[in-house]
Structure of Aspartate--tRNA ligase:
Amino acid sequence: MSESMGNLRRNMMCGNLRDVNAGQEVILMGWVQRERNLGSLLFVDLRDTTGISQIVFDSTEDEALFKKAVTLRSEYVIAVRGKVRIRSSINKEIPTGDVEVLAEELKILDEAQTPPIYIKDDDNASETMRLKYRYLDLRKPHMQENLKLRAKTAKITRDFFYDNDFIEVETPFLTKPTPEGARDYLVPSRVSPGEFYALPQSPQLMKQLLMVSGMDKYYQIVKCFRDEDLRANRQPEFTQIDIEMSFVDVDDVISINEQFIYKLFKELKNVEIDLPIRRMTYKEAMERYGVDKPDLRFGFELVDISDLVINCGFKVFSDTVQNKGVVKGINVKGYGDKFTRKDITSLEEYAKTYGAKGLVWIKLTKGGITSPIAKFFGDEELKNILDRFNAEKGDLILIVADKLSVACDSLGNLRNEVARRLNLLSNDDFKLVWIIEFPLFEYDEEEKRYVAKHHPFTHPMDEDIDLLETEPQNVRAKAYDIVINGDEMGGGSIRINNSKLQSRMFKALGFTEEEAQEKFGFLLEAFKYGAPPHGGIAYGFDRLIMLFTNSSNIKDVIAFPKTQSATCLMTDAPTNVSEKQLEEVHVKVDIK
Amino acid sequence: MSESMGNLRRNMMCGNLRDVNAGQEVILMGWVQRERNLGSLLFVDLRDTTGISQIVFDSTEDEALFKKAVTLRSEYVIAVRGKVRIRSSINKEIPTGDVEVLAEELKILDEAQTPPIYIKDDDNASETMRLKYRYLDLRKPHMQENLKLRAKTAKITRDFFYDNDFIEVETPFLTKPTPEGARDYLVPSRVSPGEFYALPQSPQLMKQLLMVSGMDKYYQIVKCFRDEDLRANRQPEFTQIDIEMSFVDVDDVISINEQFIYKLFKELKNVEIDLPIRRMTYKEAMERYGVDKPDLRFGFELVDISDLVINCGFKVFSDTVQNKGVVKGINVKGYGDKFTRKDITSLEEYAKTYGAKGLVWIKLTKGGITSPIAKFFGDEELKNILDRFNAEKGDLILIVADKLSVACDSLGNLRNEVARRLNLLSNDDFKLVWIIEFPLFEYDEEEKRYVAKHHPFTHPMDEDIDLLETEPQNVRAKAYDIVINGDEMGGGSIRINNSKLQSRMFKALGFTEEEAQEKFGFLLEAFKYGAPPHGGIAYGFDRLIMLFTNSSNIKDVIAFPKTQSATCLMTDAPTNVSEKQLEEVHVKVDIK
């Protein structure tokens, strides 16, 4: 039997009761976390979004009330009026542990069946169950805290950019399909038969058009959509903090964003990060860390020994270098004894998933040097190699010989994996770095042409513009990523704002003028009427929340996430729809 | 020839220059609004988002610079360094009119072709041109101001709800198609062949699930989608301020929202509205104003004379009443002489568009009473009618005889139309009213059953619950709309939170249990595990911005709106997509 609240109005939240409230009459409302019947006393832990209060029903005070209370079960929703009193036995574990509420009135607002998952942080329900009963999973305190921190982060973000004269502008969701890039989610049009909208992969073109519109500074926290196969920690719809500014160059964008990042850390983690944030060129990052998002919380930097092994007796090394490959390695300094042969084999398997053909190791122990390749080297050769690695007793050196990209990729990721296995990654240690001077182009082996590494509107560095036609591979971009603890949290660039440079860019990308027009016509048209220098950045909002909540699973920071196959287990979306609905939008299902 | 900013960095906005800046060196950047060449002096009005500054190029000071400046044309983007000085002839029309900047350095950041529409507020370009060149249209000062007010309104909204412990939660955009209501936008799934997502018409179910999740108070400013034929001031995607609260009844929701509305008016219009806002039952609104969103800025209330004419000699009246219809009218008090016979004919045409079969009029002039129906009434009868209307010399009475719904609808709208024609609608006069106690059901003539007037989860008024089975037509809902100057700005309700009442509701709607399960299964499942009493409201954000910017066209408050046929003239969305793209999502075009 459910009741209405009647005249009861909540005047206190469960998590806020303190000893100073003793003697007050309060009205609490929430869910029964658990109940214990001690015969004449019934204790109920009552939970709301702020925490838990202990309620006592005393049969000697009010027997009818007690009888009603013993019908309570877990997750019943109730309203309780009663008097706050100091507990006879204080519970130091919870903030409200000094007091309890002696119930004088009880309303059962809704009954509950036994929930299929436990409402507590250390519930071990499968992800499937957690997603199916998401509304129960979200009752867990840590999930509530995650969503609250997310809301707080949005608030800090909006306050910061609003206070700095950025204008929040909503960009459309029913947009034009994108000619390049990831796969679009399509929306068939009813009014224009046979035509489709696309959900935006990002508001990139719209925010550039806003700059052409003279909006000067724009920001938005906005959903974006990419219909890609979902790797871990990707969602088909994700949230972006999107920013664009006019009349700026790289330093201007970086400078305001450093203030923003500073504020996030200060208000969310009470950490004062050092400003300015360190900057590292893409080239240096690749050379020293093998990846463009280095985790700077630990060492193990990449070392190049190609010059030392070009003529060595170990053919794998010498052949690789002679065929324009490289031999690089990392020194897992001081942790050699943490890795058994079996561990090293497992690291080799890991490196292979990034394309390495093998992993050579050298271990320096009290007993001397152990390595399957030691025998191929003379003492002097070996000494030079070890010196290059600054190797000492207790070290473990891991080496990959391959073409540059594979060596970097496999060692860069191996470096992170080693640190993970060694438990070197503290969640309270934040290492931030701007990666700058990205290459403007990368060579697409499939299409046999240069493609834009970011997008075709990225501005080349001024000093490299003249290389556009002659050495495109050496042109650096006015692009920048903010990397925190090895994760790219955001990235952006200065955009091209003049049509002559844009034409040279398209030519370098191998587009004819007609192709450029077809792909980007409306933007090019807009740029004819006076475009200011402009640039911006976009942050992965979900990733930021993962960072600030120490979550390793993106689903823990999104209220209603989707599975790896982009389904919602709670609502069963996507689903079949009626023939009539499809007819109205002029499509039919066509499963090959 | 375009140049880069080089070392120039903007240190002043065009609209902010004042006499106190005289003597300072400033660097301004923006668009050339216009240029006037007076021979040895060239004046340039430079525009940015804040306003306009006058720049002077003096050939006697720097001839090379002057020569460069004479190449400037409208909408060129430039950077100017120069010294601020008091103008010789002050311009009182603009805030920066006391001063000008004597240019010492000029960089042409981008050239511009002659724009196809004028960049000024009173440009008369067609809507088609304005939408095609939206980035130019947005350069107009009033469009910039509209978007800024929109951003400010969002900021006020978020601050208010955040400060009142509401948690902003993002709900999904790829959702399950809705079983009832408006037409969904569909998104074919690639991973689940033959299945579809729908874009949300509102986050209604998600926000209710958040309450079941214990989130307590939720808000979001969120895009919603309805694929309906677009009437004026509708857009296929629109923005909603969405709110839901737990452990509340009608007064609680209304009370916090009155504080919110108060804050909006105070901060946006510097108007202090009276609290509490007046409340009017649906019944009273319909009786007195004929519509459920009455404009209270003027009188002309509906008057019922059915009882006076049931046996009169004018058959149209007496027959209507005897057949259960009504005879109602309005008195356009004091404005009788503003309406000629021709005007009245035009009002009659207007009333007919709302279903009225005709419009009877009585005019009271110095010369006496004029009316085509006067001859059917005795003196006493006529006097009683005129008394009922409180009619005096100078009045015009307009009467409709029809069934109740048609009489109300046509007179209610006629009442507004009359006020519009009389110019009685001041934009500075704000009349707010809560319409409450809506009927829970309305009868669907097509389906021959009762349907939910709001949605099937709306809570009946406590005192009417027992009428659910016996007199569904008399059950009132715990629903409320906020109406401002005759526009519904928002609406909401308390929801049903217990499954027994929900079952009775479904039965009243004629659903079998299986049908209810099929349509709303996941919500019903969620409600099994303890749902708190909850309710909320949603505001039409675009409409609020129209109100606060005095805009009559919704397109003037949205950055990139769509046409009536849901197309974007700037990007040409929607468009054709490739066969490959369609194959990937398992659909093909099927135009009947």
Notes: The radius of gyration of chain B is 30 Å. The first strand of chain B starts at residue 25 and ends at 37. Chain B touches chain A through 124 residues (CB under 8 Å).
